[in-house]
Amino acid sequence: MLNELKCILYASYFGSDSRKGFRMAVTLARTNQARLIFMHVIEPLGQRAERLINSYMTEAQFKAQETEGIEIIREEITVRIQKFSAEELPSDYEFSHNPPECRIEQGRPVEQIIRVAKEIDADLIVMGTRTHSALSQILVGSTAHQMLFYSDRPVLVVPMEGDHNC
Known about the structure:
The protein is 48% helix and 19% strand. It contains six helices and five strands; from the N terminus they run βαβααβαβααβ. This is Universal stress protein.
């Protein structure tokens, strides 16, 4: 028997071509009447960047900037979801019955996606990839590629070339 999809985690990298992945996540959520969580992970600063910032502002100033930045990202996600809804969903369909939830996490993307997927008991993780050549995945590795190896949940990887953002 196939597992029901009750909860879908869409991990967005916020690229200019990421709408295709969100479209797939929305389609699956609508079809299965599943809960949809839109997640974005903010990667940690490198040591050099952190030292540079610390030399120009106090920790309190940095925390205030960080909080403001997270709110800006949350607003951008909300705008993208609204724009997507207006442009791609039937006029009689609204997310009002089951609107996507927004999660913004900080840390290493693979670790945070896996943690949140477990926390919300996601049945499926949907994400895009910009890395298509085998050589580039061997040399660098993409978050999507790593998720295929480390996730204990199904991962649907959607190629993201040539689409609009979401």
